[in-house]
Amino acid sequence: MATTTKQGTEGHGHGLLGPRAEMAFAIGSGITYTCGMVAKYLLETPGWVPTTLFLATYVLGGFFTVRSAFETIRRGRFEVDFLMLVAAAGAAAVGKWAEGSVLLFLFSLGHALEEYAMSRAQRSIAALGELAPRTALVRRGPDRVEEIDIDELRVGDTVVVLPNSRLSADGVVVAGVSAVDESSVTGESMPVEKQPVADAAAALAGRGPVSEAHRVFAGTLNGSGALEVVVTSRAEDSTLARVIAMVRDADTQKSPTQRFIDRFQMVYVPAVIAGVLAVIGFGVLGLSEPFADSFYRGMVVLVAASPCALAIATPSAVLAGVARAAQAGVLAKGGGPLESLGRVRSIAFDKTGTLTWGQPRVTDVVPVRPSLREQLVTTVVAVESFSDHPLAAAITRDLALEVPAGAESAATEVNSVTGRGVTARVDGRPTEIGNLAMFAELDPLGVPDDIAATVDHLHRLGRTTMIVRHGGAYLGVLGVMDTPRAEAAPVIAELRALGVADMVVISGDNQRVADAVADGLGLDAAHGGLLPEDKVSMIARLNGRGGTAMVGDGVNDAPAMVNSSVGIAMGAGGSAVALETADVALMTDDIGRLPFAVALSRRTAAIIRQNLTVALVIVAALVPATLLGLPIGPAVFIHEGSTLLVVANALRLLRFRRGAEHAGIDHESRPA
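Above: the chain's sequence. Below: its structure in token form.
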């Protein structure tokens, strides 16, 4: 039985015979074996008739086994297929044709059923590759659209996407509005509204991040509106293509358990052969029984001790776990990261864009007196609407709707004071908006005590503050902050329930802001003001307490990710760098998928432990039973049955569900 699941390199390649050939051969061997038994025991036929039928069983049942054994021997390894052939050949050598036939029949049938079951996991991966259409409609002029093969698409081409059709390429929307079902790539259960990007040239040039409202992926399903999309990557470089390739190659990063089993088999298989020889020798020399009887017993022991279930226990679970993760928009790069994630006891989070939205919002409007709130808001919006500073953009966005119709003020002579704030004239009166440092220069006597107290309070909460003065009178203070994601706090609670004991935020932002985020989300500690090398040192300290995962954006957090037990990138669907850097990638920037990934990895580890236990118990029970006289037929049946049981247990991962995957996360709370 094949001991790995990598397509095209291990197991049985069917070639020209077709994918169902092995099952057909196995069924054929069963028919010839049954006919041979009928001819031998129920019908009065010449001896050569059942022998010929059993020989046909050898050919049909052993065809794929011989191919597999030849491939493994050519690579310098002796695996289960080889042991089965030795046992069957040994049975034939002592005239036990019926026993050898049932061995090859049951072994080939078990292997065919195993491959059929494992193909369920592989089909869930292969199905991704069938999502992207093979052709695309490309605009060649104002009134001309040409249909071409997707392999002919070039970066910069404009693709027309019809309603209710699948997208053929990664790109940015330049015309049209529609809702796109991205579940096939990102695992996002709800359609995402798409609209044209403001500057397509900047998006193509990679100048700044592209919002998910403008970014689309090949293989996703368009809704009821037509879209025009500028292609940003060739077909072979699309997000869907990269995900498929990485999942198919997932077994290149074997789990620690799989590496141990591989090393164990290198010692175990020769030990089994040595043990079989010892059984034969003891029977002939110690018990003085006929060589044929001792040899037959040795072959039965060989079947019983063969590590089929042990060999497939881990790779079957890993393949199913990786496939299930991909269905949910979580890319795990093989068994190593998948198993390691389940063992982490500490998680370090980057702050900006991970626990927070990565863009400031107005959190506090504190007028000197309640009656001045409208004037405060109107004055600030009038001035900040002239600025392109991120804080100014946040103020204009969040407060513009509070300005009553007809009460707008006009700002003139707007001047920026670098690192301090801005000055202007509003309705002809001098106006200043800035931090304490700015007003210390403008007002040597200092700001009023109530203003100073408000600023101090907001600073302790991690806010960036702006004091507003108009016509020499203080109107109040604004607090601005990069606010935590709505789903962040529930995610932290979910992770604690899963047994993650130590969760910290590590950030390049100042310590006060990091503390505010940590306190608000219930994290254990906050470490602010860190450079990339400082984050690496912090990860090293956390690693000393056990396995540590680092969650970030996969770009500026790459050094910390590489040095952690598991690097987890968010929003990797639009970032090739994130996909390459991370061990585990959340295809959207939805941190709510993290508990699902941790829970799945722990369930995978549990399935692996269950499989190994079953495999070892079966071998431990079967070997003594064969030494006491259990014949080869029941031994093969139990042996193959345990292997199928292990595979079926692993396939339960394909149906894995957890409430955290759809934990009622408030996606509507995203900043506009």
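The two ends are 56 Å apart (CA to CA).
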